[in-house]
Amino acid sequence: MKEVLLIITAYLIGSIPTALIISKKFFGIDIRDYGSGNMGATNTFRVLGSKYGTIVMVCDILKGLVAVGLYNFLPYYLQHGNSLDRTNLMIGLGLSAVVGHVFPIWANFKGGKGVATLFGMILAIQPIVAVSCVGVFLLVLYLTRFVSLSSILAGVMLPISVLWIWNEHEVLYRLFALLVAVLVIVTHQKNIGRLLKGVESRIPILKYRDRRKNRNK
Q1: How many CA atoms lie within 13 A of 63 on its CB side?
Q2: CB 18 within 8 A of CB 59
Q3: GO molecular function: any one (predicted)?
Q4: How far apart are CA 22 and CA 43, in angstroms?
Q5: Whose CA is closest to 117, among 192, 35, 59?
Q6: Distance CA 79, CA 128 (A)
Q7: Quick one: pLDDT band at residue 204, thresholds 50, 70, 90?
Q8: Rounded Cα–Cα distance for residues 67 and 147 (Å)
Q9: Which one in 71, 146, 178, 188 has a CA-CA gap of 20 to 30 Å to 152?
Q10: Distance between CA 133 and CA 150 in Å, rounded?
Q11: Cα(22)–Cα(195) distance, rounded to whole angstroms?
Q12: Three-state helix/strand/coil letters over 127-142
C-alpha cells in the first residue's frame, strides 16, 4: 500500500507543469499554443529562449530525480530489501513521474515528451549510464542545435550503454532501456519528419558561433 501511495506521489510530482507555469507567469501565454504545442524543454527553448528553456529542462530533470528518491521513505528497501526490489521500485517511481509529465493532471493531461524527466530518473538510478547519455545529448546539441535530434540519439544511447557498454544483467532494467529508446523515437515522430524535410527549428544557442562561421565563408 505504501508503494502505491509513493507511485501516486511520483505521478503528481511529474505532473508539475513547469513550462506552463513559467510561460504564464513571465509571458502571459500558454506554451502549448505555440511552437510544437508541447509543454517541455524543447518547445520552451524554441518559444521562450535558452534562458527559460534551461530552467524548464533543469526542473523537469529534478522531477525524475525527486520521484525516484521517494523510495527513501520506505526503510525496508534501505535496510532489508534486496537490490532487485529496490531497483524495481525506483523504476516504477521514475516511470510514474514520466507519465505525469506526459499526461499532467494539473494541465488537462496535455504535457511534454518526458525526455528530461526520463534523464533525471536514470540519473537517480544509475548515474554512469546517465552521464553517457547526456554526453551524447550535449555533443549532438553542440554540433546541430537540434534538441529533438539530441534527445533521440541520447535515448538510443541508453540501451547501448545498458546492454553492451556496461552489460547490465538485470532483465527489467534491460527491457526498460529498450522501451525508453522506443518511446523517445515514437514521441518524436513529428520531429523526425521535420528533420528529414529540413524544417526542424534549431534552439537559440551558439548563435554567435554560427554567425562567425557564416562571416568566414
Answers
A1: 34
A2: yes
A3: glycerol-3-phosphate O-acyltransferase activity
A4: 13
A5: 59
A6: 24
A7: low
A8: 24
A9: 71
A10: 10
A11: 28
A12: HHHHHHHHHHHHHHHH
DSSP letter for 109, please: T
Could you list the residue range(s) of the whole structural domain that residue 6 is in?
A: 2-216
- C-alpha cell recorded at residue 210: 554560427
Question: What values do phi and psi take at 19, rounded to 5?
Answer: -65, -40
Structural domain tally of the chain? 1
Cα 130 from Cα 161, distance rounded (Å)? 9
| C-alpha cell at position 51 | 534562458
For 28, the grid coordinates are 502571459
Total length of the chain: 217
Number of helices (H), then strands (E), belonging to the chain: the values are 12, 0
pTM: 0.83
**What span, in angstroms and rounded, lies between the C-alpha atoms of 1 and 7?**
10
Angle at 192 between CA 141 and CA 206, to 5 degrees: 20
In sequence order, the 6+-apart residues with CB closer than 8 A to the CB of 6 are: 70, 71, 73, 74, 89, 93
Give the ranges where 15-164 is alpha helix by DSSP (H): 18-27, 41-48, 50-68, 75-79, 83-102, 115-125, 127-144, 147-159
Find the helix or strand (DSSP H, E) in which 69 lies: none
Amino acid (one-letter) located at 49: G
In 3-state terms, the chain is what percent helix, strand and coil (to 5)?
A: 80, 0, 20
